[in-house]
C-alpha cells in the first residue's frame, strides 16, 4: 500500500521530471538551486538548516495551476485531497496586481507538522473570475462560461481513484501507479490546436485569462524549487544567460532574520503551440505562459507581524515615490533595519514571529523551579525556540511574479465595481473549508507550549509570547 505522503512525494517528483522535459530552463534552475544550497550548507553548517533540513529544502517544490470554474476547482481539490493536501489561505490577485490578473487563489498543502516535514509539496491554485465586470462584459462572460462548461480537465477514472485515496489515506500499488500516471498527465501541456481568435480575444483582457479560458485543458504553469540564498541564485542564473525578471519579490535581503517569502523567476519562454485559424487550418505559433520560479522561505509571522510587514511595504512605496532614482532594495533594507527586530529572540519576544518551544534536556536537574512565562523560560535556558517556516504565499508577491511574466497589461475598467469573492465564497464553491494559515501556525505553537508545560510539570498553562 502507498500512503498519502508517499503519493504526494511521488507526484511532486514526477511532475518535476515532466516539467523539466517540457521547459528545459527549469532543469537548469533546479541544478543551480542545488549548487547554491550545497554552498550555503558548506559555509554555514547546521545554521543553514535552521528552517528545514537540507533534505527537505532540496526536494521541496511548489507548483501553480489555473482553472476556470468552481466545478473544476472542486475536482482539483479532490485530486490534491488524495495527496493529503488541503486548501489554505485566500489570495485575491485582482486587488494585488497593478495589471489585469482576474483570479482569486488558494494553496493546497499539507497542514500537519509531521506531514510537512515528510514532504511539503504545495500547489498555488488560481480560479478565473468571469463574473467580475471590470474585466469581462456580459457578452464575453457568457461566451467564456459556455466555453469552460464544454471542457473536461480531469478524467473520471482519476477522480474516482482520488476519492478512494482520500477516504482510505492510501492506495494499493497498482492503483497508486495508475493514479500518478493520470494525475501527471492531466497537467501536461496539451498538443491540441488552440483557437487563435478566441485566445487573442481573451488575451486582450488578460494573458492569465487567455491561459485559463482560451484552451481546452490545464497545465502546470510553473514549478518552484526552494533555495537558501536567492540573491546568489539570481546572480548565477543571470551569468548563465537566462533572463530573470527585474526584481526579487517580497522582503529585502538584510542582516536580520529571514521572514515570510522571497520569490523570483526567469521570464516566461516563447513555447511552440499549434493554432487553429478561422478557416480551420492549423499553423504553428508561440505563446508565453510558463516560467520558472524559485523561492526562499523564512519565518512565519503572527497576525501582528504580518500587519507590521504590510505597513512597512507601504512605507517603502512612499519613500520610493519621493525618491524615484533611489535603489528600491536599499530603501527597503533601511526600512527593515529601522522597524523589524534584528534577532529571532526579539522577534519571538515581541510576538511577531511563530516559534515552537522545546524543553532543553537536563536543565531541570539543578532543582530550581521553572518560571511561568515563555520569555523567561527561553532566557534562562529551560526551553529553546525553533522558528516555524512560512508555508504559504504573499498576494502582492504572487501578483508581481504573474505581472512580470505577462505579455501585456491587459484591460480593466476601474469605473465598475468588482464582483465579491472571499474565503467563505471560495469554501462554498469548493465544498471544502479554506483554512486560515494563522490558525495553523498558532496550533503548532500552542501544542508545543502545552507539551512544555506537561514536561516541566507546571500547574497552569504557559503565557504565550505577547506583543
From TrEMBL:
<keyword id="KW-0560">Oxidoreductase</keyword>
<comment type="similarity">
    <text>Belongs to the 2-oxoadipate dioxygenase/decarboxylase family.</text>
</comment>
<dbReference type="InterPro" id="IPR047869">
    <property type="entry name" value="YdcJ_bac-like"/>
</dbReference>
<dbReference type="InterPro" id="IPR009770">
    <property type="entry name" value="HGLS"/>
</dbReference>
<protein>
    <recommendedName>
        <fullName>2-oxoadipate dioxygenase/decarboxylase</fullName>
        <ecNumber>1.13.11.93</ecNumber>
    </recommendedName>
</protein>
<dbReference type="GO" id="GO:0051213">
    <property type="term" value="F:dioxygenase activity"/>
</dbReference>
<dbReference type="Pfam" id="PF07063">
    <property type="entry name" value="HGLS"/>
</dbReference>
<keyword id="KW-0408">Iron</keyword>
<keyword id="KW-0223">Dioxygenase</keyword>
